[in-house]
Amino acid sequence: xxxxxxxxxxxxxxxxxxxxxxxxxxxxxxxxxxxxxxxxxxxxxxxxxxxxxxxxxxxxxxxxxxxxxxxxxxxxxxxxxxxxxxxxxxxxxxxxxxxxxxxxxxxxxxxxxxxxxxxxxxxxxxxxxxxxxxxxxxxxxxxxxxxxxxxxxxxxxxxxxxxxxxxxxxxxxxxxxxxxxxxxxxxxxxxxxxxxxxxxxxxxxxxxxxxxxxxxxxxxxxxxxxxxxxxxxxxxxxxxxxxxxxxxxxxxxxxxxxxxxxxxxxxxxxxxxxxxxxxxxxxxxxxxxxxxxxxxxxxxxxxxxxxxxxxxxxxxxxxxxxxxxxxxxxxxxxxxxxxxxxxxxxxxxxxxxxxxxxxxxxxxxxxxxxxxxxxxxxxxxxxxxxxxxxxxxxxxxxxxxxxxxxxxxxxxxxxxxxxxxxxxxxxxxxxxxxxxxxxxxxxxxxxxxxxxxxxxxxxxxxxxxxxxxxxxxxxxxxxxxxxxxxxxxxxxxxxxxxxxxxxxxxxxxxxxxxxxxxxxxxxxxxxxxxxxxxxxxxxxxxxxxxxxxxxxxxxxxxxxxxxxxxxxxxxxxxxxxxxxxxxxxxxxxxxxxxxx
Length: 596
Fold this sequence. Notes:
Layout: H1 2-26, H2 30-44, H3 50-54, H4 58-75, H5 79-84, H6 87-93, H7 95-112, H8 116-125, H9 131-141, H10 145-177, H11 182-208, H12 217-235, H13 240-252, H14 260-283, H15 293-316, H16 324-332, H17 338-353, H18 362-387, E1 397-401, H19 405-416, E2 421-425, H20 428-436, E3 440-443, H21 449-454, E4 460-465, H22 470-484, E5 489-491, H23 522-530, E6 534-539, H24 546-553, E7 558-563, E8 569-571, E9 585-590
Parallel strand pairs: 1-2, 1-4, 2-3, 4-5
Antiparallel strand pairs: 6-9, 7-8, 7-9
Helix pairs in contact: 1-2, 1-14, 2-14, 4-12, 4-13, 4-14, 4-17, 6-7, 6-10, 6-15, 7-8, 7-15, 8-10, 9-10, 9-18, 10-11, 10-16, 10-17, 11-12, 11-13, 12-13, 12-14, 14-17, 15-16, 15-18, 17-18
């Protein structure tokens, strides 16, 4: 029995990993494959029965997992971002979200027969999108920057806010169902907020004064979150979820707190918890669904897709600078994600334990809405974006990692040639100079988890790793090889002989084609710029071809890029020697004493 249990748990972990991997390969939200896997393993195949597998541990395990998920989500909500986002996004995450909660609640009440209490809870949980489902979809749809930024910011901000809405409505339901007065409900809210703030303050105090060693900070934070959750529930019943939500928001908005490592750890842990939890929760569904529930769920999905979302976007975007075409695509894209699935499943377990009528219908209806929105929108959003003429063209832009003089010089040349260029670096001085030169920038390491949330890659299809950090260049190449493809990632060597000396040569998985020519290094590129070499852009013709260009500017000329007649960018590298043709525009590094 112990062996069977161990094997089953390992299988769940393995299936969760395969679902995450498949989602990465096809660029779709992982939640879709996790839910389908749980349904196949549970009600369809009968292999996985969570209630029998975990028994009395199912509820506390699910509760603790959701607590970590909510904390990680609220940790990313920064109040300063609410001021930076546009008017349309502010409308979507404030009164637009409230409108969506109400309309979804009305649909659930009249179409599925849920009580008003459970229906409004359904509305609160399904008004959210979230970055984990929006980001993969945006990579496939590739809308213009205004649409991508609106949807991305909406997902980031509304994810924890939606969880907070759901927690508050849930607390109100439990208080009323148990015969509590409004005073008890307010006491639950006050307790959750107070304990959350105190826990965040105590943890911040310990971290700022280095009273917890660095290697134990992630472990300590996890313990603090789970302790605050259980302690809050023990003091005031059912206040724990609000506590961890407030704790994350407070910790994430404290000045001088460096929580990047903690956030990375929580993201990794959340991936593990989400993968396991969703399979278990989906496996608890009964199949086939009760009479009428499937059709009720489909009807709610249709109303949410064709009525609720368009109405919400239309009202929330009044006064914004978005065009009607952009609003139409935003109104179509609203996939539901992690918060909706995880929190709804936990609330359903708790409400069923309290004997709340209709609680058993909550999870199937939420899962139907998740699967419906992800599948439909993933299949139709790209063609719709093209039809509305708001889709970005093929990703021809360039991400340049390195904002020193070499990186900025190449970025200016490509930008002048008409390419979308983003310069990224974790050193502020270079980023400041790049901004003063009119270049689009990203302040941070482009392969970090922060970049995954905030770096807009719309229209970007290549990486040129040109920083002074050889190892970070390699990491960026490995990271973006998965994003752009093996043939779209290049690096500028940082040391003479780096590519020929076996003692320092990078391994196959870390290597990327060296830029420009075999003996060109970052140091040599900077030296030539200091000596007066300049980057020259010239269009070749039948009478002035590449040999004529070399004759005029000298044989030391270094070819950097070629732009074909149709606008395609060719990058010169040691593995791909370019042969510029008439009609191309060549971008080359020419000596200082060459003809003008």
